[in-house]
Amino acid sequence: MAQSEQEILEGLAEIVNEETGLDTASVEMDKSFTEDLDIDSLSMMTIVVNAEEKFGVRIPDSEVKNLKTVRDAVTFIAGAQS
Amino acid sequence: MTSNRDRRVVVTGLGATTPLGGTATETWEALLAGRSGARPMEFDWVAKYELPVTFAATIATPPGDVLAKVETRRLDPSSQYALIAAREAWADAGKPEVEPERLGAAIGSGIGGVWTLLDQWDNLREKGPRRVYPLAVPMLMPNGPAAAVSLDLGARAGAHTTVSACASGAESMGYAIDMIRTGRADVVVAGGTEAAVHPLPIAGFAAMQALSTRNDDPAKASRPYDTGRDGFVLGEGAAVIVLESEEHARARGARIYAELASVGMSADAHHITAPEPNGSGASRAMLYAVERADLSPTDIIHINAHATSTPVGDVAEYNAIKRAFGDHTDDLTVTATKSMTGHLLGAAGALEAVITIQSIHNRLVPATINLDEQDPEIALNVVTGEHQKLPDGDIAALNNSFGFGGHNVALAIRSI
After folding, report:
1. How many domains does one find in chain A?
2. Which of B73, B74, B91, B312 is 20 to 30 A from B331, comparing alpha carbons?
């Protein structure tokens, strides 16, 4: 079932919060995972796998490097759901 | 064997999270009150696996009550306990100002991240490799706790892990003494940790008949030296101390609990699990510690014994003490605090070092509980009933730790 971008953002923020302890409000569309949120590659892999489960999508490993910002991830997930 | 006390090593901070309390002070107060930390295990896996032992000395304060959620997620419980104890010890020492390159960490563990290892094995089998947590390896590695403490305190002189089963925690303190004596560090955060109240180690220890099976009365199960002892009670937790060169501690006006004067170590080379019956290896470790602390055997007035409550081990340690101290054995005030704490494996030696330091500092020895009828083969002067006062003036004590593999470690602690 496709979700709105806002729903995906909120769900993603919960995953990021659980893995890193970052406040969900800090997970904004234009934030960079590495530069703004200080998420390392290990945490990113956990976030990706948890996002796959939560949103019912498959995010190939080769795609992960393209997910630079929160918006990249939300857009990818929304596209994969549709 | 020569002493090397020209650079004395002193204790300036204590920390512990144990079956008796969430801090070193809470643990000490429970020891003086004679409380047992053993309790029934309220986990669904106890019935699921039909474990023959249904109790343990589980941690009193869950780490989730103390640590941030992300810390409990990204650290194995063994690292969580170590971090809690290290932060307490560091704060207790007044957060010493020290160059990161002169600050070390030495945290031992007997088993390492067994929870992570087996949880992730379940993930692999049930959900596939992609579901294995990317931090699985750094969480399960036995040096994880030392690394976590080093990262948290910014300790850059070295982060070390001694692994010698139930002597690991004591050995790490010996390692820390050497770091300071040899000039590698001015301050070292040292201790041991264990989080092995897990069905696999329980089943393994039970299979070797090492555990007490007094399921109907956990608080009475750990009974070192008693004729009714039937094995040890598995415990969990961590204990950590802050060690400093005396010069460094004095210069900053730190409170000094005691001097960690020396470590004596030996190996039995006798059997993988059974102690050498005549105690020659363990007695050598004790005598090395005495000598390196610039003491004579008759200067030792107190021993916090390893005494796990196993039928064979308690006698073997007595034989070793008798061999080392001869007639002076009768003058030793001995206690077996595992009667209350249970056996914390790789954290045991560290916890008992903390207790021995508290005993020397407060001049009080906690009583051994559950000693109703002393084994006639063990002619030791064991403190029972009320805790016992130690005399004023210069005093010294030993803390013994022995581990599967034939590892013997004795720490000598002197008043200051």
Report:
1. 1
2. B312
Interface test with A, best of B72, B73, B75, B120 (most A CBs within 10 A): B73
Return the residue of A nearest to B131 by Cα: A49
- Distance of alpha carbon A16 from alpha carbon A45, whole angstroms: 11
Mean pLDDT per 10-residue section of chain B, whose length is 416 residues? 76 98 98 98 97 98 95 96 98 98 98 98 96 95 98 98 98 98 97 98 97 98 98 98 98 98 97 91 98 98 98 97 98 98 98 98 98 98 97 98 97 97
CA distance B322 to B255: 35
Domain span at A77: 5-81
State in words which class domain B9-251 has.
alpha beta
ipTM for the complex? 0.82
Q: Token pair 């950590």 is at which residue?
A: B240
Superfamily, domain B263-414: Thiolase/Chalcone synthase (3.40.47.10)
Instruction: Flag whether residue A42 sits within 8 Å of chain B, measured between CB atoms.
Output: yes
Is A20's Cβ below 8 Å from some Cβ in B? yes
Contacts of B134 in chain A (CB under 8 A): 42-43, 45-46
> Hey, are the CB atoms on A42 and B68 less than 8 Å from each other?
no
Q: Choose among B73, B130, B131: nearest Cβ to A19.
A: B73
Residues 6+ away with beta carbon under 8 Å from B235: B18, B19, B37, B38, B56, B57, B58, B194, B197, B338, B341, B342, B343, B344, B345, B347, B348
Q: What percent of chain A has pLDDT over 70?
A: 99
Q: Does A40 touch chain B (CB under 8 A)?
A: no
CATH of the domain at A54: 1.10.1200.10
Interface of B with A (CB under 8 A): 68-71, 73, 130-131, 133-135
Domains B9-251 and B263-414 share a fold: yes
How far apart, in Å, are the Cα atoms of B109 and each of A67, B273, B313, B373? 39, 17, 21, 33
Domain boundaries, chain B: 9-251, 263-414
Q: With an 8 Å Cβ cutoff, are B131 and A49 in contact? A: yes
